[in-house]
């Protein structure tokens, strides 16, 4: 019996996928628990439309990530910080501070989780920072830490 899955089911398939399940398994387990619906012509058409919309949204998100990566390429974010002797900072510069500075200085909204620091920034100077924007798009930009 052909059914369209409404949820991911281990060993069977992913949500939105049409599978060929055993008659009893579909009738006694999948359908009563609303884990799947019968694969009628209308349901198949709806499944195809949802898949097409998902692909279009994914393409738009990828394009947005590529554009953001292009804007980030030539950016140098200036972050003032308090420090002590020998150019050391009190604390460290975090992803959150970098994301807030990007938004304030350049109006670029990058989530703090997407900013990757190879090592903590604990001294004054200029650092190369990466941002993983998703869809295999990575952008590098500079962070300049100056004394307050």
Tell me the layout of helices and strands:
Blueprint: E1 2-5, E2 18-20, H1 23-30, E3 36-38, H2 41-72, E4 76-81, E5 88-93, H3 95-106, E6 115-116, E7 121-123, E8 125-134, E9 137-147
Parallel strand pairs: 4-9
Antiparallel strand pairs: 1-2, 1-3, 5-7, 6-8, 8-9
Describe this structure in words.
By secondary structure, this protein is of the alpha+beta class. It is built from three helices and nine strands, in the order E-E-H-E-H-E-E-H-E-E-E-E. The strands form three sheets. The chain has a four-stranded mixed beta sheet with strand order 4-9-8-6. Strand 8 and strand 9 form a beta hairpin. 16% of the residues are buried. The mean pLDDT is 92.
Main attributes?
3-stranded antiparallel β-sheet; 4-stranded mixed β-sheet; elongated; 148 residues; alpha+beta
DSSP helical segment count: 3
Strand order of the largest sheet: 4-9-8-6
Q: How many strand units?
A: 9
Query: How much helicity do the residues have?
Result: 25-40%
Structural class: alpha+beta
**What does the largest sheet look like?**
4 strands, mixed
* Spatial separation of the terminal alpha carbons: 70 Å
Unreliable stretches (pLDDT < 50, length at least 5) are none
> How much is the radius of gyration in Å?
24 Å
Overall 3D shape: elongated
Q: What is the beta-strand fraction?
A: 25-35%
Query: H/E element string?
Result: EEHEHEEHEEEE
What value does the average pLDDT take? 92
